[in-house]
Structure formats: C-alpha cells, structure tokens
Amino acid sequence: MVLKELCLLRGVSGAEGPVRDFILEKVRKTADEVRVDRMGNVIATKRGTDAEPRRRVAFAAHMDEVGLIVIGINDNGLLSYAPVGHIDSRVMVSKWVLVGEKAVPGVIGAKAIHLQTEEEYGRVLDHDSLYIDIGAKDKAAAEALVSPGDYVTFDSEWVEYGDGMVKTKALDDRVGCMSMLSLLEERYPCDVTCVFTVQEEVGMWGAKAAAQAVRGADCAIIFEGTAANDLGCVEPHKQVCCVGKGAAVSVKDVSSIGSRALFDALMRTAKEDGVRCQIKRYVSGSNDAGPIQVLAGPMPTCVISVPCRYIHSPSSAACFADIEAQFMLAHRFLMRGGKF
Amino acid sequence: MDLQRFLTEITALPGTPGYERGVNGYIARAFAPLADEVTVDRLFNVIARVGNTGPRVMIDAHQDEIGLLVSDIEEDGCLRIDRNGGVDPRVLPGMEVMVQAKGGALFGVVGAKPPHLLTAKDRNKTYEMADLYVDIGFSPEKARSLVRVGDTVVFRAKARELAGGCFAGKTMDDRASVAAMLVAAEELRGMKVDSTVYFVSSTQEEIGGKGSKVAADAINPDYAIAIDVTHAEGPGTGKWEAFPMDKLTIAFGPAVHPALFQKAEECAKKHRIPYEKEVLPRYTGTDTDIIRNVRDGIPSMLLSIPLRYMHTTVETLKLDVIRDTGRLLALLIADIARDWEDMRWY
Question: Is the pTM higher than 0.90?
Fold first, then answer.
C-alpha cells in the first residue's frame, strides 16, 4: 500500500530525502513535467484536456514530518535532543526512536515511578530532561554510532485497527502526499500542479519558495492532516473535526483565511457528488496555505484535511474513509473543471 | 538459550496481575524439557521442579506485568481506564495497548486532550488517569458490544536489542528474571546437584506478591531465592538508589537472611561473577518480603538485575547480566547443597 510505504519512510523537516525519492519515482511515471527546486520541493504538473488557455489548479502537501534532532552526546552515552517541529514532550516518554541515517534504535525512558518524589510525579518531563538511550555505555561508544545533528524519527509500526482505522507515524502529512499522487494518476480538463513541500513543520519554509511555482494558478488547495479532538467526551465546539465524518474543509486556521468562493464550490461539490465532508470547527494549526496565499500573487486557497487523532505523536491515527474523501473531494472538483 | 528470542516472545504475551493465563502456558512449555515436573496452581503460578533429593529451595521470579483495566465505556465509544499495578500515568499518552476483550484482543491507543486545547497551566501538569482514555477505533455501539467494563488492558511495545549488549522492551520486569531461572535450570542439568529446586514463576507480584505467598506455603522450602529487577543508574537517579547496569546485585538488609547473603557473596567471588551489594534498609519491594514470612519463616534472599526506566515499556538491561544471574543461581544452589549439613542459620 502506497500510504503505508509513505508513512514508514523517514523524513524529518530538513531531511526529506527518502520521501522525495519515493515521490519522484512515482510522479515521473504519471506527471507530464517534474522538477525539484533548490529547496528540495518536488513540483509535478499534469496538463489538462481543455483547449488552451486552460485553467490551472495547484495543490500542496508537505513531505516532512515532526521528529527530533540530536544536539549533543553526554559523557554517560545518553543523547540530548531537541524537537524538530512541535512535539508535546509528554508523548515521548516510554517510546522507541530511530537515530540518524543508519537508523540506530534508541529508547526514551524516564525515572521510574518508584523513585519519583511527589513533586516529580506531577511534573511534566520536558525535552530538556529526556534523553535518547541507544545502549552506549559512554560518550565514545555513542560517538561510534551517532553524531550531533542526526535526525531522529519515531519508530512506530503501521497498525490497522477498529473500524477502518490506522495508527502509524507521519500521517501528517503523508496523507496529503498520497492524495496528490492519486490526482496525478488522473487527467482532468484543467492543468494540475502538485507541490510536495519540505520543512512545513518548522515554519513552512518549503512552501515559501515553492509558491513561485504556482504563480498564475487559478487557485491552490492544500492537503493536510489536522488534529481531531473527538474522543474523551469533548464538547462539540472543541472537537475541531471528527474522525470518520469525512474530509475537513477549513474556513480559517492560524495561518490563513481561505477563499469563501472556493470553500463554497468545494462544499457544493461534496454535497452534489456525495463526498463525505465536514467543516473544520476550531481555529487551530498552520499550514502551507499561509505562504502560498500571499507569495504566489494573490492566491485563493482552501485547506482540505484528514482528521488525525494524536497528531505529532508516534501514534497518529486516522480513518481510511476520510483519507479517501480528501482525494475524492479534489477529484470531483477537478472533474467539474476546477471552477469556483 | 536464545535470550533475545525468549524475551521477545514472552514480553509479547499478556499477563497482568490475576490474568497470567496468557503467559503461563508459554512458561510451562519453556521449563518442560528442563524439569522433572511442571505444575500450574490455582493462582496460575508455574512451578517447575528439578531434582528430588537434598535441601528444598524455591526460586521465585514473577511472570505478571503492570497494566490497566477498563473502568467505563464513554458515550463516544472511548474506554476509561484504571491501573492494575504501579503504572506511571506519564508513560501513557500515545501508548499502544491491547484490550483483552472476550472475542479477542483489540488494538488501541491511549489518548488525551490535545495540547492546543489546554491552557498554559494545564500543559505543565502531567496527565491524570481521569484525563486519559483508550481509543479502539470503533463506534460507541460496536465498542459496547466488544468490550466489557473490567476487561484487562495490556501494553503493546516492541522488544529489541540496543548497542552495548543492551536489550529493551516492556515487561523485562520481571520476565528477564524468569529467563534467568531458565538459564539456571539449563546450568543445573550439566551439574550433579543434590537439591530439589522449585522454579516458581509467580503471579500477582505487582499488586503485592499473592502468587509467591501461596507457592511458598505449598512448597514449604528450606530456603528461597527471589530474582527481580532493580533500578539501574540512569537519568535522574540519585546516589545509592540505582546500580551499574552491567552487574547483578545481591541484596542485603533485614529482609535477607544473612547466612544466605554470605553464601551468595562467597559464591560470586569464587566464580568471578561481577556483582554489587544492594543495601535495602527495610523492604525489598519484591516477593522476598512475602516469602520470608510464610509459615514459620523461610530464610530468603534476593538477586536483582538492574534495569533502566522500570515500569515503562522501554525497560533497558544487559543480556549478560541475565546470564550471570542464572549462572550464579545454579552455582549457589550447588554450593548450599554441598554444605547443607553444616549450614548454620544463627
């Protein structure tokens, strides 16, 4: 399964190589034009069937995932790290990671409950007080295997569970990459340009450069994975979006306010063509729509997200039907000529 | 024995306190070729007897693991949970689990309120059990039909070798010690030892040593040796409360019979098995505390395997220390058997 392969590839922001190589291999078979810009973004275009001048719809999804980076090796052989992208340190305790290009296995432990003081029991262990343990007995033994600057990924299996759910790492935003790969397999009346960006999780740096590649497009649709907060008896207005209720279409998030005309066209498409969709209900999260809206000329944008539980953790979870809906909504919109 | 394979297989089997049936068959099969007799009692202790002459010794390592219980099924289908054993709630967010439902185990993820919806004050607090839930990915109706309140929940984590001869995974506490007992049983086969050895893989240690209590009562041994894990030096550990990871510890203190401690220390020195003396001023926090008070008192001692991150799913130890512990056990049983007639308790 392509999504499974995509999620298990290791590509922390700044080190997206394995993901890019995989995507390039796929899009070279499907797209009409493919290039990689100097930032490492992959830009793939599929020409439309309408007579020129044609409409052009751009898409963006990011290849990178949140992870860690080794910042130093301590005398006792333990590695100090910093997060790359936002990670709540509370999800790191008691987890496996893979360090560097050689994927050296490591664990992140914590002082045993038996030894904690009452104050320690109630205190959050932040990234500064957690360490990666690769089993090295001292600094020299660790240096033989890893170096400062090594990128670190979660070591999380692909597990299908429940009613059509999957748990794995990096669903944010390999789901979006997957949806763009699927679009490039089709041919639409309009031109389609898909931008697979780098470094979204550390400030949307890839999109800031890649925006130039979508200049002149009629609109840009951003595919994302976004936080679902739908379990644990959360009040409806705080749920953001719900797993299993379809692709989440955003009116506004932290980085941009979408085009209302494009939003309305997408919701109309969903309703008329029977694609399961929901409106994202809570203003949260930033994504590549922010830079693309203003750096490619004035660009109408809209974000279509797959609701993901436990996003930015080793155990992100999503529903296959929602992943399919993300693709299907864009697919139907393009079948209609990408007009809004 | 292939320690890595054994640890990988046994730590994947469910056995929270009181529900050790998921793992005890595997243990019984592992002991079968090494023992004269293997029995399972009504609290699920697995008792493997080797030999039938000389002093009768009970070796004890517990097979149960910490875990969770389903305490409620919410309107939205998520499962509320309570602890079964000393689980640190800090390890739970994002933890993978297997809910032991009647129709088969169900995969789940422990969820919590996501950080962007918490206040800055909340973010600096650890999650409490009441904040957490298990997501099994089913609709509320389906969840209700599959899961019952009271179903046990077991952690799911990989077991894998690290650098430096280390091995990490869940439930090394205390199945690494069960592995040490198997090493000892193997060693004993090649030795002529005049002793009756009962290897007890005990149950319910994590909630207070119920299994070892009934096993010791039934066996009524002449003396007992418990094997458990202790804290290895690691992030945040203080002086004297944690030990080097590359050697076993021999416990000393009121819970340990001094005559046995002396024998163990002599034996380790004679055979150049590296050890550290672990001084425990009152309780040991292991089955030793239970066994020593069974019937009219059973002389007991404790060997421990240091590990880092106890009660997490990344408990980390050295494989060589498991081997050393097994070897010391066999040699110590042989020494005591040989000197049995001259053994003076006080």
Answer: yes
